[in-house]
Write a structure and sequence with these properties.
Family: Belongs to the MsrA Met sulfoxide reductase family.
Keywords: Oxidoreductase
Number of helices: 5
InterPro entries: Met_Sox_Rdtase_MsrA_dom, Met_Sox_Rdtase_MsrA_sf, MsrA_MetSO_reductase
Strand content: 15-25%
Number of strands: 8
Enzyme class: oxidoreductase
Protein name: Peptide methionine sulfoxide reductase MsrA
Length: 236
């Protein structure tokens, strides 16, 4: 990537092996919202995972949203266990940078979070977001329930229609189940980075194309209440 080569995802055999235990401890509390990062989470909350480029600016988008209980950043969709930031950025783990969003569906729906997701980045760029190039910057949604999967797919199709009408390319976002794709929390300094560094790099910018209100279109599939299973200890 440094020398202008097109980023390519590694195969499981090519990926770095990683390690059985993390090399750091994740902070216990969100620096803005004050709630637990890793749980346990209160009954009735749900979990959503979004990859939309550099997770510093992406996380702030979600913690600023009413109804979001906590957020944390990490790595998902790859093969390396307990990867480090440097390993992910090498392109040899297969992960993308992800924001885990824990939210109250009585205050903000999954469909509304999807609208924020689509409008906060350019989902047509493949392995990049703007000037950030690499497999770790790809657009991705990892779903925790069949209802989330259906809503995410329907929103993707709806956004493709308005993007196409506005002259944009085909969406490259992957929509995949989170169950088989472990979420590995990122290092402490990445958590709520832009709260700790208000003038820090953001790197998040959308296309300017709006998706529309999920309650006024046919893509707002309802999601049942109830928290998705928290990641197992081996996945932290």
């Amino acid at each position: 990537m440094i020398f202008g080569r097109t980023p390519v995802l590694p195969t499981p055999e090519e990926a770095l092996k990683g390690r059985e235990t993390p090399e750091f401890e994740v902070p216990s509390r969100h620096t803005v919202l004050g709630n637990a990062l890793l749980g346990p989470y209160p009954e009735g909350l749900e979990v959503a995972d979004f990859g939309l480029g550099c997770f510093w600016g992406a996380e702030r988008k979600f913690w600023q949203t009413e109804g979001v209980w906590t957020t944390l950043v990490g790595y998902q969709g790859g093969f390396t266990r307990n990867p480090s930031y440097e390993e992910v950025c090498s392109g040899r783990t297969g992960h993308t940078e992800v924001v885990r969003v824990v939210f109250d569906p009585a205050k903000v729906t999954y469909a509304e979070l999807l609208k924020l997701f689509w409008e906060s980045h350019n989902p047509t760029q493949g392995f990049r977001q703007g000037n950030d190039v690499g497999t770790q910057y790809r657009s991705a949604i990892y779903t925790h329930t069949p209802a989330q999967e259906a809503t995410a797919a329907a929103s993707r199709d709806a956004y493709q229609q308005v993007l196409t009408a506005a002259g944009h390319a085909t969406i490259t976002t992957t929509v995949l189940p989170a169950a088989d794709r472990a979420f590995w929390p990122a290092e402490p300094y990445h958590q709520q980075y832009l709260d700790k560094n208000p003038d820090g790099y953001c790197g998040i910018g959308g296309t300017g194309v709006k998706l529309g209100d999920p309650f006024e279109t046919n893509w707002g599939v309802s999601c049942p209440t109830g928290i998705a299973p928290a990641p197992e200890a081996a996945d932290k």
